[in-house]
Write a structure and sequence with these properties.
2 domains; two-stranded antiparallel sheet; 140 residues; 64% helix
């Protein structure tokens, strides 16, 4: 039994690398929530433009090497947020609502910047130095 579990773990991770899934789940929270966050970022970053068909549950499950029910649960969250719409037998599509996408993108950016500032603040980085670093990063 132990050899089977090691084999299963190995093939699962190998499959993730082969399929190019560079975003491993980190064990900090439910997998479906981590997957939801990854897919939300992909939508809001423009990887999946407005109105385009979203990958199927099966293809996402294979890519991430996880149970299709986990993918389904993550997609349900995105549907409840209005980012993904189900069109019956045609599949799921990214919303055409550009105002909603912009609002969600702004919310995500604000949350990210707040977290970055909080971490910098914990390290005792002065506001001026933090802002200077952002300007330097922008230039190079």
């Amino acid at each position: 039994m132990e050899k089977f579990m090691i084999y299963l773990y190995h093939t699962s991770n190998t499959r993730r690398r082969i399929l190019g899934l560079n975003r491993y789940f980190n064990g900090q929270g439910p997998v479906f929530m981590q997957l939801t966050a990854m897919m939300r970022t992909d939508i809001l970053s423009g990887k999946y433009p407005p109105g385009t068909q979203f990958p199927t549950v099966r293809s996402l499950a294979i890519e991430a090497a996880i149970n299709p029910n986990t993918v389904q649960k993550a997609l349900s969250v995105l549907e409840s947020e209005g980012l993904v719409l189900s069109r019956g037998t045609l599949g799921r599509f990214v919303t055409d609502d550009r105002a909603l996408l912009e609002q969600k993108r702004n919310e995500m950016q604000s949350a990210y910047m707040r977290r970055a500032w909080q971490e910098a603040n914990k390290l005792g980085i002065p506001k001026e130095k933090f802002i200077a670093f952002l300007h330097e990063s922008e230039e190079g």
